[in-house]
């Protein structure tokens, strides 16, 4: 199973000064996203990447489109919206690409390995930042939640419970 996040960049590293646009699709190698909604493992992912040579490295601008799978955090309805994530990343072909000397912490900039770049970690990071941790039907464009007995969202003052007067205080209304 070939990951749609792995790109062969040998031609760009060997002297091509022209940016390249590559579009590829495939199954997601892992589940990507927060607990309640994510790109499922094996779900179809389409990646369209523009790769720019930078001499000793590469700059990548990529749009990742996939159908998410999750649940509404209020009514537990299944949600399957299609979303596009945007990733911008620089990959170094040499360990001293940015600093000009051997870097002490090699995890700062992702590296090109065997003439390939892997956008998976960048996509995982972007999904964690941009996908909702508590998705709701209304926030994702599905309208109101289906269940009639689902509690109203926090801060919603138009609930029936708030319009009822507590019987312990009912006698005080005559003083208002």
Automatic annotation (TrEMBL):
UniProt-listed InterPro entries: YceD
Ranges where the record places region Disordered: 148-167
Name this protein carries in UniProt: Metal-binding, possibly nucleic acid-binding protein
């Amino acid at each position: 199973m070939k990951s749609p996040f792995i790109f062969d960049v040998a031609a760009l590293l060997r002297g091509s000064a022209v940016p390249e646009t590559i579009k590829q699709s495939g199954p997601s190698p892992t589940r990507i996203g927060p607990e309640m909604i994510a790109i499922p493992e094996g779900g179809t992912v389409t990646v369209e990447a523009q790769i720019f040579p930078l001499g000793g490295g590469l700059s990548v601008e990529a749009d990742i489109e996939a159908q998410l799978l999750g649940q509404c955090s209020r009514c537990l309805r299944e949600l399957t919206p299609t979303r596009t994530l945007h990733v911008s990343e620089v990959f170094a072909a040499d360990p001293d690409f940015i600093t000009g000397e051997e870097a002490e912490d090699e995890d700062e900039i992702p590296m090109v390995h065997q003439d390939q770049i892997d956008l998976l970690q960048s996509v995982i990071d972007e999904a964690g930042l941009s996908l909702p941790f508590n998705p709701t039907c209304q926030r994702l464009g599905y309208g109101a939640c289906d269940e009639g007995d689902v509690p109203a969202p926090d801060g919603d003052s138009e609930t029936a419970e708030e319009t009822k007067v507590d019987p312990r205080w009912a006698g005080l209304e005559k003083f208002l």
